Amino acid sequence: MSFNRKKRQLIILSVLFAIILLLIMICIIISFNKCSSDSADTADTAASSEPVVQTTTMPEKYIIDENVKVIKQDDLKAGCETYACTMLLNMLGFDLDEHTIADNYLNCQFVYMGEEEGGENYGPDLYSAFAGTAYGGWGVYAPSMAKSMNNYLKDRKSNLKAYNMENVPLEDLIDEYVSKGVPVMVWATTDMDEPYVFTTWIVNYVDENARTKLGDTFSWYMHEHCLVLIGYDSDSYYFADSTAGKISVFKKDLVKKRYEQMGQQSIVVK
């Protein structure tokens, strides 16, 4: 009887030991699976999270200085747009002077003044053509000027193109172009003086860029001027300015007002 009792005790102890060992193994397996799951979740979270975007801050002051040479507006009395175009193209590495554009690429349409008192004047829509010539006339607006510049670039077999930028705020021109070293032609006024209607004429020439129709009345604004925007600081904008014959600096608010008064016109070559 004593032997049988001891045998039963050994069997019971063996079974208990086996049960305990099995429980330990189960716990180890559960713990391992949980760790694996947590690692996978962490990896999935890292993979699915959006990447950190590093933003660049524009410097407080920046002025394009490479190849900037201001050409004094002497010979072409009405050619501020031609001088601005020439200075901009020079900055981009093209070898030309103001006469290259004035003599070969401007679409010039004369303004015919009424000879009799009260007679009608006739001339082009400035978005379509230069009114007069750069040697003596009224000027031209961005769409027609961009067209002339593109004819020049095409003749030079350049891959660059002049883009007429309409209604683009000055801040965007600075952010997208000037701060990256790309100069921009802009229409404002001479010395940022107040523009006013000086003369009008009946439109006798239009193209696909016209803002008027044949027979409409077009108004020309005194002090209309074209400059090359090349820099900025916290208070002012910097321009290659042909009438001044130097780099001109004007307060941002004043430039913004004149730029808007002249229809927010600009040209970028890229």
Largest sheet: 7 strands, antiparallel
Give the total of beta strands: 13
Q: Please tell me what the overall shape is.
A: elongated
Average pLDDT, rounded to a whole number, is 87
List low-pLDDT spans: 34-55
Number of helices: 6
**What helical percentage do the residues reach?**
25-40%
Explained architecture:
This protein is of the alpha+beta class and 270 residues long. It is built from six helices and 13 strands. Strands 1, 6, 7, 10, 11, 12 and 13 form a seven-stranded antiparallel β-sheet that branches. Strand 10 and strand 11 form a beta hairpin. Helix 2 packs across helix 3. It is elongated.
Salient structural properties:
alpha+beta, 270 residues, 6 helices, 3-stranded mixed β-sheet
Q: Strands, helices and their partners?
A:
Blueprint: H1 2-48, E1 62-63, H2 80-91, H3 98-104, E2 108-109, E3 122-124, E4 130-133, E5 136-139, H4 142-155, E6 162-166, H5 170-176, E7 184-189, E8 196-205, E9 217-222, E10 224-232, E11 236-241, E12 246-251, H6 252-261, E13 265-269
Parallel strand pairs: 2-4, 3-8
Antiparallel strand pairs: 1-10, 4-5, 6-13, 7-10, 7-13, 8-9, 10-11, 11-12
Quick summary:
By secondary structure, this protein is α+β, with helices and mostly antiparallel strands. The protein is 36% helix and 25% strand.
